[in-house]
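Methods: holo model generation. Sequences were used as deposited, without trimming of termini or removal of tags, and paired with ligand SMILES retrieved from the corresponding compound records. Each pair was processed once, and we did not select among multiple samples. The sequence and magnesium ion SMILES for this entry were:
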Amino acid sequence: MSVHGRIIVRVGDCRIDVPIDIASGTTVALIGPNGAGKTTVLRCLAGLQPLDDGRLVGADGVWDDPGAGVFVPPQHRRVAMMFQQHALISHLNVRDNVAFGPRSRGVGTTAANQRAADVLARVGAAHLIARRVTDLSGGEAQRVALARALAADPEVLLLDEPLAALDAAARPAMRRLLAADDLPTRVIVTHDPIDALTLADQIMVIDDGALVQAGSPRELVDTPRSAYVAEILGLNPLSGVLTGDQLLIGGYPLTVGAHTVADGDVVAVVRPRSVSLHRSRPEGSPRNVWSTRVEAIERSADRVRVRLGAPLPLVVEVTEGGLAALDIGTGDEVWASVKASEIAVFPN
Amino acid sequence: MSVHGRIIVRVGDCRIDVPIDIASGTTVALIGPNGAGKTTVLRCLAGLQPLDDGRLVGADGVWDDPGAGVFVPPQHRRVAMMFQQHALISHLNVRDNVAFGPRSRGVGTTAANQRAADVLARVGAAHLIARRVTDLSGGEAQRVALARALAADPEVLLLDEPLAALDAAARPAMRRLLAADDLPTRVIVTHDPIDALTLADQIMVIDDGALVQAGSPRELVDTPRSAYVAEILGLNPLSGVLTGDQLLIGGYPLTVGAHTVADGDVVAVVRPRSVSLHRSRPEGSPRNVWSTRVEAIERSADRVRVRLGAPLPLVVEVTEGGLAALDIGTGDEVWASVKASEIAVFPN
Amino acid sequence: SSDDTTLTVFAASSLTDALDDIIAEHVAAGGPPIRVSYAGSSTLAAQIIDGAPADVFISANPEQMDAVTTVIDGHGAPVTIAHNSLVIAVERDNPLGITGLADLERPDLLIAIAAPEVPAGDYARRALDAAGVVITPTTFETDVRAVVTRVALGEVDAGIVYASDIAGRDTTDADTAAVTAVPLGHPDAARITAEYPAVALDATNAAAVDFIAFLGGPVATAALTARGFSSP
Amino acid sequence: MTSQRTRRRRTAPRTPVPIVALAVIAVVFFALPLLALVLRVPWSDVGDLFTASAPREALLLSLLTSVIATACALVLGLPLAWVLARTQLPGRHVIRAVCTLTMVLPPVVAGVALLAALGRRGLIGASLNDWFGIRLPFTTPAVIIAQVFVAMPFLVLTVESALHSTDRTVEDAARTLGASPWTVIRRVTLPAVRPAILSGLVLTWARALGEFGATVTFAGNFPGTTRTLPVATYLALESDVDQALLMSVLLMVVSFVVLVSMRDRWTGAIGGRR
Amino acid sequence: MTSQRTRRRRTAPRTPVPIVALAVIAVVFFALPLLALVLRVPWSDVGDLFTASAPREALLLSLLTSVIATACALVLGLPLAWVLARTQLPGRHVIRAVCTLTMVLPPVVAGVALLAALGRRGLIGASLNDWFGIRLPFTTPAVIIAQVFVAMPFLVLTVESALHSTDRTVEDAARTLGASPWTVIRRVTLPAVRPAILSGLVLTWARALGEFGATVTFAGNFPGTTRTLPVATYLALESDVDQALLMSVLLMVVSFVVLVSMRDRWTGAIGGRR
Ligand SMILES: Nc1ncnc2c1ncn2[C@@H]1O[C@H](COP(=O)(O)OP(=O)(O)OP(=O)(O)O)[C@@H](O)[C@H]1O
Ligand SMILES: Nc1ncnc2c1ncn2[C@@H]1O[C@H](COP(=O)(O)OP(=O)(O)OP(=O)(O)O)[C@@H](O)[C@H]1O
Ligand SMILES: [Mg+2]
Ligand SMILES: [Mg+2]
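and the model returned the structure below.
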């Protein structure tokens, strides 16, 4: 089911105004900082919160149009929403929670229970089927909440951080599940850029109630249209002033490559991989070379991120081997270099 | 404050038996799959759940010893716990929630409110200070819960997934906060191996109520003592049968390097970075070369993970450039190679 | 009683208006201050037996007086201060034309009498027996006041009540005006009357003894008669 | 009422001593008069109570009417509580107050009010009588009406209060899963407030069982049809205090057995929690 | 009672028609008799009510005693509710049943029980009298005791029920933050059950205000000290029905004003929610 329109709604002091353009069968990822309004957008789509203005149109007709006085209640939208805080029905056990959707849509008890068992198995929670939901651990509850939304067999799945409480080992399987072909149109709120980039056909970046950028993962990575988008995707954003191919960042000059941005305030983005580190001043092609200090070294399983200090607060990704070869530690002095062509600039 | 002892407790059908050895001032990360018992361990440390057996001794004396009938209630342990579901006091506003700890410990209203304001600013929630906690978004509530635990000024901080609901952009700052020197002993439950590896002095891996491995991040990455630990850290575990330097995995033979493991059932671990991909059969040193199909390609901001099919279900990490050069897509045939010395084996 | 000179009287609640008048006269005549607790005779008796601080007890029937005097030592002699005859209460202007107990046998009538457990019900039954009349009441009210209310509200067509229940009422109000008394219409039945004995619970309490005497005197009798009681 | 009510075994914090002390005083305060009452009962006569048919008849009528009244209160009271809690009805403060007034009114006056409305000359009782020949007073239904009138507010208030504190997000979740408003009410909301409903029903039943003033005023007192146990007890107090005490104790015993046998269920403590 | 009670504005699901219909019937059922009562009152006499001192005196006494009784019920009832809900006391089913019995007992019998315990010849009343010279019956404190005795169960049951459904995790959180059991009770638990406490207080106050049978039996009927408005009303029914009705309506009006002025507060609806 496709959904189009524009959500305009106030919650508290926060005004939300987001255009909606969800194509049938696609997966849309909603990302953005805390309090941006992601949950609110899902609630509007679900019909739990009426629009103040704007309009929502599903493939089956108008869902919400305050101007025209049209409002389709949640149970007639064939959506299913999974809540950030799970919202399990505490007096029903796991099976009955998951079977709730099918039973509400008129499926018989046996068939609904069968469906519950199937879906629970799919999310790796088959062993929890007879448990009281009040006895579940955080991650177990999240699996059950996900199963419950899936079991309802909706035409639009609204998932509010479906993987946040899952353990690392379970995530890949669950990601594959969320990417499965047999699922309907999906709208997934996530804080994990990797999830957004790998799962979604379209990413909507929301900040402070407004849509900052929407596009395919490729588009967003290649041309993040704001520093915020770049940062959220794990790139290094720097603000500065551009004059021709000269970029001044906090007084420090960088040379940038070919670009189409007008002179003035800009944001530059540097990928962590694009920066090289050296023990001594490097010779060669990179046009930007500077000396700095290592502020921190963060290790993950198979990569190392080096945080650099003034003049340019960049994060640099190196390999373990590279780090060993450099033989540097926190506080040491290093040389950094980046090619002009690796610096992307956008208007601020 | 240091805490030592052994937690033995039953919850439902799950028996938890975990030795505890937390040195003063260190950060301990608790990782493990959903339902492993991490939250339960925190609750025992906090004094919210009495031990069935075993013993807990803090630096200030015995905390819990069911054998001796000793039990120190939570309010006398100088711990502060942050809950997975936040557990904010819904009739108090944000400031009063955060000031609750200091006020309970006898700090005057003005000083407690000042402390609340300071700590809220530290977690990036200064603007929420006057809000009702029932009006917060998921991530906002999590910041407030974190602030509340910090403001209590405990000697042991127990944090149950403190970053799960935070947006990607906020996480680095919050990680730095959790790594700050002025914080007391910390026990952090997390599902993010990166957090465990970068924040913790000691990692405890718990599975099914038992301690699977404990050690420094380096130790765990270098010598994961089980397939589970390897998997949770993002490595590729494969089970097989070892005979000398020959490893048979589901019928497929691999050559492994020098090792000290006895013949028989073993688990082999291959790092995603150690595997190379090629369009055609590669010539050269790697002793393990095989042909397979690309099952999936997952992109993150600046790396690409390629999931390989039979005979060896491995995940391989390549660069965007590398991928472009290979010019492969899902379903294509590729050649994979891994050096014998890059395969680590452990007894199963 | 905080003030030792205050006299405490426990009186049957049907005496309320008459006794309030009498006490006013008594005080006006230089008597001590008096406080009264009105309730059903049986409640009062139970309270006195339980040690309630009463100086004078005025009962609406001899049985409760007996119950008290057999238990309490040192009481004075009970004096009957009033009688109360029975009448038939009907709606204003007697639309159904009831003229006596005999008419109550009419099958279409809804009739209320007090339950036999309470004095008024006991008297009513005796009156009916004396008249040889057999009726099927619709309800046995728990007190006689309720019988009057029923008639006043038109819920029943007739009821057997004390004369004082109707005569003693404040005639200015609408409800009471809706009730009319019809004599029993049978001489034997008319002789059945309720008796109000009063006693000083401590014969050595001069004020109490004085008050009992005052109750038997002409001032009190006049007040009681004005409220529909008959003199002993 | 809880987004995720946890049922963990936990260390119970010690109850502060002043709380225990006051609770003990409260228990003694309740238990002592009841004990004194029981001691005063002439137990040697207890056989009469069961051979005599009057108390048995009254007890049966009391049980029957109070149970039916409780059922009626449920049928009418639940919807009323729902509307008060869940709609934004403009006059709901007034409606709530109106529906609470019968608790405050002396029961006899409540009976008078019922007569004024439903009696033979009453506001609509007159029409009922003239058009349909229905006369409510002096019938068993009148007993039930009187009991419902004075006892229903207990159910309404208890349930309304609980409805306010349920977790609406759980209902939201049910709605997005396709549940109609009815299904949400039936399968999500009502089960969530079940303890409140049960305790409201107990309060209502208890009040109905003990009801005297309104009953005697509106329904009268006729053995077998309108003489309930409280009415019989009241009358017995006039003539035979011992029998009255015996009957009260009978009422107490019946209620006691019912209340104890419900154990923790009607207060919301979960069944077998240790 | 909620780990995270959300206060989002939401689309209210439409209330199903049968619910509205039944609620309307319930409202009519309550309103009609009260209306009929009000219509029957001789409003022309209303002046007398305020010039005569007796009704005013009775009203003041009723307000005073019912408020004190409610306060006593709070002081004793909260701890009792706490102990019943939060301790694993072995005999708590029995204790709860004992503390609920006075709701079922006909009020007059409750008064007899109080006399049996606290009367001058009573179980402990005799000792009180002999040793300390304290005589409770027929005093204003006796009125209050009678009211507490019959009305306190409403508070206990309402609060206990709410205590069972609070979110214990929030209390756990408070404890790890260093809060003593007292602090947890005072700053976390009691505020969380505040709506239940308020509605329990209203129920208790209402029951105490309307109390008649136990009062007249245990405390008697002395103007100024024990004649409360319901007692005065009952008495007036003997002689002057109109005045009795007027007084009842006075009682109704007072309660009505109090109830309406509390708006949604005592039922747990949050203050100004639309
Ligand atoms: N009832 C309310 N009253 C006032 N403000 C509210 C209310 N509900 C939500 N808000 C505010 O609206 C904004 C959007 O909330 P929303 O829950 O949609 O954020 P979100 O994007 O889901 O955030 P998160 O990632 O933290 O879950 C937040 O600033 C939140 O504090
Ligand atoms: N009251 C209970 N009754 C029965 N089982 C329980 C109860 N509480 C917890 N459990 C079970 O105990 C196990 C451990 O729970 P715990 O909450 O400690 O897990 P966890 O490691 O924190 O998991 P997660 O990562 O999902 O939060 C789980 O299997 C859970 O289902
Ligand atoms: Mg959210
Ligand atoms: Mg957990």
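Chain B has a mean pLDDT of 84.
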